[in-house]
Amino acid sequence: MLIEIRHVRIEYSRLSKQGKQHFYFRNRKVALLLCDCCNSQFERPVKQMDPRRLTDEHTHVCPMCNTKKFAQSRGVESRKFWNTTVDQDIGLGDL
To answer: Has this prediction a pTM greater than 0.70?
Structure first.
């Protein structure tokens, strides 16, 4: 679940040819998300995400959770909802 989008300012420093230290800043947009698996908050840079996934319609899983296990559990939940077995074929007209 998307909580908010933050603007983070990060400070960097570099050393010039004469040995003088220069400071410069970069602004970065970071999305604060809630993990749908373990309900913990985590941050992810907006540039790494597809803009269509920045909604509450999509699920978000933190780096600490197993995404493949979470996806398999979601399939089990939907099968229980529709009361079907794994090998049963359902046409789109029946949904």
So the answer is: no
